[in-house]
Specification:
alpha+beta; two-stranded antiparallel sheet; 2 strands
Length: 104
Amino acid sequence: WVWPGWCRISHIITRATITYNAPTRNCPTADNVMVNVDLSLTFRIGPDTEAAHNFVYKLGAHRFDELMSAETEEAIRGLVYSVTHDKVNDLREEFAVGMLSTLN
């Protein structure tokens, strides 16, 4: 391989899935009981090079982290606040469907 000196590789993007952990602490329920919620999201950058280019140059890892942190915490707090403490564990499926529609 011969690589010209004026071309450079600025970023390397993985094709593997990435896990994003979004813990939310002291989230009040409808009956004002504080609960802790741990959420794990898996995502992939792509599927093509144009999407990877847009991720790197238009969004970036730091802004993506800020965006995901704000969106997930707001969604978790809104959903948990709508139910009582004894129903929080039953929110898994409902939250997953709602989060997919919010993030897409």
